[in-house]
Amino acid sequence: MARDYAARCPRSPGRNAWMVATLIILAAQGVVAQKVRVEEELEAYPTESVDLRCEFVDGGSLTKLTQVSWIWEPVDGQRDNIAVYHPTYGQSFPNVAFRDRVIFLQNNLRIPSIRIKDLRMSDAGRYTCEYATYPSGNEQGTTTLIMLAKPKNSAKAVTVQAGSKSVMVAHCEAADGKPAATIKWLASVGGNHSTSSTNGPDGTVTVRSEYRLVPTAEDNGREVTCLVDQKTQDRPWTEVLKLSVEYPPTVTIDGYDHNWYVGRSDAVLFCHATANPEPTTITWTTASGSLPDTVVVEQNKLTVRKVDDAVNTTFTCEVKNKHGASRKTLTTFVIEEKREPVQEQQTGALVGGVLGTIIFIGIIIGIVFLIRKYQQDTDSLKRITRH
């Protein structure tokens, strides 16, 4: 019904004229938009070159090209003319910063593409290829140049002392990158990290991340991994770091077998220490201070050349490094006669137990056999009696 009504109602001349004008304007805008052909966006790196392409698409025989200019609009700053081409007066490069770095690829007013050499981070911005034409006026197209920068990545473990407060044990940095990098950590230790960034004057960003924890002696030598991800990298950059935690010595003494009998030769004690950094001194003493004449010390090893009552005493081993000293004591007892090793006694008992078990099992088997034999004989006797 609405369709029939529209068919019956005549359109007003004013409305028709408005629609025609609108179509003409839209068509004209489409032609204008297509007259100057450029690339919308380009990416480039410092020290490299980039070609900014521009082409005037034929707008008809009535359009006359007067000259073409390349206008640069930095990210922060004012528009500036960097290159001009006039078919009569030739080429001109008004901007001093670009003068020795910009060239026209052709002496062609319709294809005035340019090349910028030795790119800098500050060259980022909008580059407009602008024609002066007659009779339509100026025609233009704009390319956005995005400058990228590969970050300089580094990571390092920091030597710290074991303690009760959270401190930085490693740091990772992605310097002078664009766009800003992302830093992550992989770690089996119970720490946390914080990240900060600093903007450079040329648009680059330096990202720094610190890994922190409450360091213990057990954390020394454990690994944390820094991962840096950024657009210009094919894959994340990684660096594995070994934590360096310093701590005073922890001391133990071993080698004593509780069998120091009179006359025994070469009884030995060892003093072991875990420390970071390595111990600087290891000192053996006894309860009386000095060591008996029968004792020889070589670094962490104490040897009693011949056991006598003089070594019926308490030995002390003291270990030092730059973070302090720790000591351990051990009391040795001298006995009159050699004591049989506990292992041999246990072996004899084990053998005796096994033999006893075998004999017991044999007796049980014999009893079962006799019982079954008796039952068989009884059954046979009963059958004979019945017959």
TrEMBL record:
<dbReference type="GO" id="GO:0005886">
    <property type="term" value="C:plasma membrane"/>
</dbReference>
<dbReference type="InterPro" id="IPR013106">
    <property type="entry name" value="Ig_V-set"/>
</dbReference>
<keyword id="KW-0677">Repeat</keyword>
<protein>
    <recommendedName>
        <fullName>Nectin cell adhesion molecule 3</fullName>
    </recommendedName>
</protein>
<dbReference type="GO" id="GO:0005912">
    <property type="term" value="C:adherens junction"/>
</dbReference>
<keyword id="KW-0812">Transmembrane</keyword>
<dbReference type="GO" id="GO:0007155">
    <property type="term" value="P:cell adhesion"/>
</dbReference>
<keyword id="KW-1015">Disulfide bond</keyword>
<feature type="signal peptide">
    <location>
        <begin position="1"/>
        <end position="33"/>
    </location>
</feature>
<keyword id="KW-0393">Immunoglobulin domain</keyword>
<dbReference type="InterPro" id="IPR007110">
    <property type="entry name" value="Ig-like_dom"/>
</dbReference>
<keyword id="KW-0732">Signal</keyword>
<dbReference type="InterPro" id="IPR052659">
    <property type="entry name" value="Nectin/PVR"/>
</dbReference>
<dbReference type="InterPro" id="IPR013783">
    <property type="entry name" value="Ig-like_fold"/>
</dbReference>
<dbReference type="InterPro" id="IPR013162">
    <property type="entry name" value="CD80_C2-set"/>
</dbReference>
<dbReference type="Pfam" id="PF07686">
    <property type="entry name" value="V-set"/>
</dbReference>
<comment type="similarity">
    <text>Belongs to the nectin family.</text>
</comment>
<dbReference type="InterPro" id="IPR036179">
    <property type="entry name" value="Ig-like_dom_sf"/>
</dbReference>
<keyword id="KW-0130">Cell adhesion</keyword>
<feature type="domain" description="Ig-like">
    <location>
        <begin position="33"/>
        <end position="146"/>
    </location>
</feature>
<feature type="domain" description="Ig-like">
    <location>
        <begin position="249"/>
        <end position="331"/>
    </location>
</feature>
<keyword id="KW-0965">Cell junction</keyword>
<dbReference type="InterPro" id="IPR003599">
    <property type="entry name" value="Ig_sub"/>
</dbReference>
<keyword id="KW-0325">Glycoprotein</keyword>
<keyword id="KW-0472">Membrane</keyword>
<keyword id="KW-1003">Cell membrane</keyword>
<feature type="transmembrane region" description="Helical">
    <location>
        <begin position="349"/>
        <end position="371"/>
    </location>
</feature>
<keyword id="KW-1133">Transmembrane helix</keyword>
<feature type="domain" description="Ig-like">
    <location>
        <begin position="151"/>
        <end position="244"/>
    </location>
</feature>
<dbReference type="Pfam" id="PF08205">
    <property type="entry name" value="C2-set_2"/>
</dbReference>
<dbReference type="Pfam" id="PF13927">
    <property type="entry name" value="Ig_3"/>
</dbReference>
